[in-house]
## 1
Amino acid sequence: MADAAVKDKHEAASTDANAAKVEQELTDGFHLVIDALKLNGINTIYGVPGIPITDFGRMAQVAGIRVISFRHEQNAGNAAAIAGFLTKKPGICLTVSAPGFLNGLTALANATTNCFPMILISGSSEREIVDLQQGDYEEMDQLAIAKPLCKAAFRVLHAADIGIGVARAIRAAVSGRPGGVYLDLPAKLFSQVMNADTGAKSLVKVIDPAPAQLPAPAAVKRALDVLKSAKRPLIILGKGAAYAQADDAIRALVEKSGIPFLPMSMAKGLLPDTHPQCAGAARSTVLKDADAVMLIGARLNWLLSHGKGKTWGEPGSKKFIQIDIEPKEMDSNVEIVAPVVGDIGSCVSALLEGIDGKWPAPPADWINTVKSKKEENIAKMAPRLMKNSAPMDYHGALGALRTIVKERPDAIVVNEGANTLDLARGIIDMYQPRKRLDVGTWGVMGIGMGFAIGAAIETEKPVLAVEGDSAFGFSGMEVETICRYNLPVCVVVFNNNGIYRGTDVNSAGGSDPATTVFVKDSRYDKMMEAFGGVGVNVTTPDELKRAVNEAMDSGKPTLINAVIDPAAGSESGRIGNLNPQSVLRKK
């Protein structure tokens, strides 16, 4: 009897141990998503906590993923998007359902338009309630809404499919032309339980997510023939060229060919703006007079006047070569006589092989024309950049920042606004690739603080965010986020009391201010002080330069309120022609 009792006791203990073992070997949807991201090298998530993803953020932190919590989902999405641009890995934005999803969707659509790899992951209401429209908490068919605005959209309903869902999202975001992807995770998915070993086996490590796409040899030869026969060739570098991180090959192609190059704003620094072949200071001349233009990672959209009109001289006066990974991009506005389809690194390398020691240098008269126009324009601009007036105008203030960036070429410049953006693009020279981040293809305002935070997190480099006062208003509350994470971000707000100018008046009379006017003499620097950062108010370029240098040296979160003459600036900067004028008003 004693032996039987001992046996029963051992069997009971064994049963308890096995039960405990089984319990330990279970996993759930929360952990499977986290494990799937970690398996694929995702180590940072940007987002805003709330139902149903609050616990997900906590668990991700415990698992070793850095979770950066924002005050608004759009800014978190912008941070994720620029993280994708800087790293070539999809930036992850995590949001709650419905309103949070919609806030993040703006950033996702902007990422897709700009070809930044990003994944928006949102919790959502249960399918059976959404489909019958029964009025669930934050009920919304998020997948249907996201599909038209991103590159791909997926929903995962079963824990066993999490690995495949995450893998498909990653591959879709970075392969071919990069872009935004939406991943819908209903709340019920997170609490689903399955065997841990089976769950681990269901995860997928994405192999070669963005494979090289080699150009056709005939296409490469055709492009080289067009360049070789040109009398006034030009290379235009777009942000796609910067994203490609084929920096050495692009520089070799430019220098071996001897062709002048024009960088679009986020391609500035691929080669220094002070490079002898850089035609940035002669932009109007080279666009109008070139007879052969090679686009590398740049699109002939509105930023390049669609390749048409007065900007480009006489119709039919030039031949276009275009390097792009997307075949449908060719002939989108004008005829592309030499399309080269493939990834930029492979295409540029193939072109380099065709440029040997016998490659003819561009005609001397073309090189001299570009050089003379550059020198003329630089000489005209120089006195304006040296002006040390109070209050400042844009040129004097940007002249001070130009000097700082020259002395600190490793710093990342984030830039948005109307006049603040349009003038800074031409005035502030860049010296290294992927150091200038701005509004991109859509020209959308509000990217500033999200981009600044994402850049600081991903690169651990100091960030100088140059903001118009209007643009800053879209994301300004994120200065609290900057302070909370103690990021080396210096924000300069060009404060001229309004949108475009602070001098507009209400034509109807009455007590309401004009629609473009803000509170006079606002002190944005006090916002940063409120959260423990450094706030500085400056009125001259000398004060501005001193304050920015101190901020960059200290690495402390800093906001500088730069007082700009309210009368300075023009409507919509340099693109006021895009603002339709009223026929009645003209009469």
Note: The radius of gyration is 27 Å.
## 2
Amino acid sequence: MSSDALLAAAPIVAVLVLMVGLGWSAVHAGLVAAVGTLVIALTTFDFGGGDDPFGPAAGVVGVVAEAAWVTLTVIAIIGPALAVYELQQRTSATAVLQEGLSRLTPDPRVAALLIAWFFSLFLEGAAGFGTPIALAAPFLVAAGFRPIEAVSAALVGHAVGVSFGAVGTPVLAQVAASDFTGAELARATVPYHTILGWILTAVVVVLIGRALPTAGPPWRWGGLAAVTFFVPYFLIGRFVGPELPTLGGALIGAMVFIAVVVLARRRSPAALASAQPGAASADIGANGADDAPSDTSARALLVAGAPYLAIVTLVLLTRLVGPVKDLLFGVEVSWEIFDDFTGSVRPLYHPGLLLPIAFAIGALAQRASAHDVRMAIATTNRRLIPVVLALLAMVTIARAMSQSGMTDELAETAAGVGSAWPLLSPAVGALGTFVTGSATASNILFTDFQIATAEATSQPVLPLLGAQGFGAAVGNIICPHNIVAAAATVGLSGKEGLVLRRTLPVALAYVALGGGLALLAT
């Protein structure tokens, strides 16, 4: 490996060592690594040293401006999602929902699967952009999970859906950069997760077993959750296209899963609990069923779930109704400075617009007092301060690496393995997401590179683009950007390294197996 490649890898190594090895917070690790990244970019990669009269200053200002913009768009999701959670706690709506889940199944592990697996995947397929983690993690905490297990389960649980998240947005980035159609790319990508996705289901099952240890991991129900999701997921990806594999798989899978749960309980009221002694009596949360009203009605459940139902309704309306989607998607706000630094957002299509509406609907439906609303917002704002700093630092690292060519240097070094390139192809996709925080951005960054490398090494292109889309999804599990956001929703700010220690081995193993599949496919 060249000296330039070693220096290009230094920011990633620094983040991993400081957060995983030394247990530093994302704020402290990010600030140190961000400064180091800018120094390397300016001194080794001639960043900002072109014809621009502002020179290096323009590079630094441009990168920080891009980082601030990305941070703002992420906080627009985290903030209202966290406010929804705080309000749900204050109005006791969480306790009512817990009681409702306990009536559906006496086994809290099954309820946890519905949240960590199907709920996360549905939100990823419909909205993406961190929405599933921001909403599922606090819900799992309320259901009895320790914060670390809750964040880890949400990160792992949504990952198989990221390749087709936000109604296929990551694939659309590949369509724009290649000569392949969305349907062709979907067919190339979906086998990776279908064959290997059971590993992530198993991890979620293990995390549920740790969080609710009285009964142990719910292996049978986890197997059912995997089958009911992956069968429609694969069929839609194989025969329909990239827009609906995750969304359709989650909706169809959840309906089948719930039907089986209800049928099993009707046949034997103790059926769900009998597989693991003590399951029915396991605690389901700090404000669990024992504290919830025993006469929970359908109306009470609708009121308690109002913000989540509003999110689902708004997501389906804005993502699947063509005229509405076109109208909202057509509004874009963008900016550019120094020719090289840009930012854009579609404000009416961004999840950050939907979540405040859901918060307002929840407050009205639950007749929350003005005091509760103010306190929920105030608590949220206090918790967001360290999150903003951590995100700003981490995104600064990502943008500096991308703008200076450090990320390209790493990818080109990896391509030097020649015919064994497919083994590393998913890792490049994961690298792109690790440093950008977005599978879509990873696909934008590396699709051209994957095509060029495939052609240079005489490899078929399409399987490697599938591997790129697969790896980009896996990167979401370990991306500091996502971990910071998720940790903020459950009060773990400053302890993000503990989460990364849990998710890093999972991501590395999953990417490695994906590389093996890519090698077989080529």
Note: Residues 56-90 form the longest helix (35 residues).
